[in-house]
Amino acid sequence: MAERLRVLVTDTIADSGLDILRSAGDVDLDYRPGLKDEALLQAVAQSDALITRSGTAVTPELVNAGSRLRIIGRAGVGLDNVDVDACTARGILVINAPTANIMSATEHTMAMLLALCRNIPEAHASVKRGEWTRSKFMGTELEKKTLGIIGFGRIGTRLSRRARGFDMHVIAYDPYVADGVFQQHSVERVQLDELLARADVITVHTPLTDETRGMLGPAEIAKMKQGVITLNIARGGIYDEQALADGLNSGKIAGAAVDVYTDEPPGAEHPLLKAKNIVLSPHIGANTIEAQDRVAVETSRMVIDALRGSIFVSAVNLPFEGDAEAAPFISLAERLGSFAAQVINGPVSRAEIELYGVEERLQKILSIAALKGLLSSHVGNVNFVNAEQIAQQRGIGIASSSNPNPRDYANLITFRASSQRDEVCVSGTLFSERSQRVVSVNSFRVEFKPEGHLLYIINKDVPGVVGKVGTLLGDFEINIAEYNLARTATGGKAMGIVTIDSAMRPDAVAALRLHPAVEEVKLVHL
Question: What is the CATH T-level fold of the domain 5-100+291-307, as seen in this structure?
């Protein structure tokens, strides 16, 4: 009976996500929001996956406490509380839900912009105090204004459609998005300096990276229009907060709306808390019933899928983008690496994968898959997260190349592994029915399915070897499923790849090696 998977949840998530975990037949749910300190470490040590929001700090100590831990699910987008490097070093997959709050963040941006332009927070507070000073709350219309969007991704594109619904002109800056995306959304593409100079309203929708941290500071604010409106509903730290406060207080910036901060919550002396003409909210861009429901559902589903072996999830520390259509190629590359590891003599010092007639975008994922197969035969806890890192730590040089032109077959993957005294070159293809075949090993043109128990035999090309192998396997009650032969030249070297129904005992292998024509015998399991 398969071992059950234990999922620990340490923050409150929507019932819809919990229901998915409870209904999974192979999952035991341990739902303990607020778990802390030693009790948390003990629970993690007994869990295969941890799901958290922002209340649990995923530290190196916590990661190292989880000897079974394979998955960290962050029910949200941000990863400020997760030490991703520590997870990667342990081969732990880190999953988040980057698309679940797209709509809520988009709508919150519009809500903050409208609240700012129409003075809604101050007007509301005034009426609550019993005042009726209409002239005090003179607003600004959005119609005919220019909206500048920095970051034209999933939120930026959706925001552009809503802004055009207000009859705004939209310009955007994003160096990583193709021209066609701007054209598709009828948005003018501009450079950052032009956006700063032209936009009446500027909103940022980028992740916080080394490139974007502090990207809007004093110099950039100086380039903005007098009386510009600015918004940050993305990530704290993109704006230099002191520079933003100075711009508000000087009147250079007419108003700002901010939902995110470099330090959360902001301290009592934070410059934005005392700035003029600003609307602040406590990082609630994703706080809608619908978004939290989607976050819980997406995270729970992906955690279960990942525990069951899928790599086609929203993982932040996979060194490639998962593509379900690539699954047959990924499996083939992994088996080629595993085959090479089991037949090569000596520790591997270099690995290389060559693709022919296979899409170039798969080069990275197939390279990682082959490395995983290569290492898994000799190293524990190797997966798609840490295979490349482990290979580098073991001093294995890694190379890959891609050629769009087919070579002998419609598609071909060639994997080479080298040690100080040996080299193995194995090639495989997918036939039209998507079935895997190895089609060559070193200089031998041989075809076999890379699965199950295999015997790898190198021998002199002389009569009697095949019969001797068959007789010996029969003596040990081992049934032959396939016997595939190849040779370099008559009377030279020959190779046999024998698919057998069960593993061979060491004494049977030793008996094979005693044959005078047999030069090498290896057991391979794929």
Answer: Rossmann fold (3.40.50)
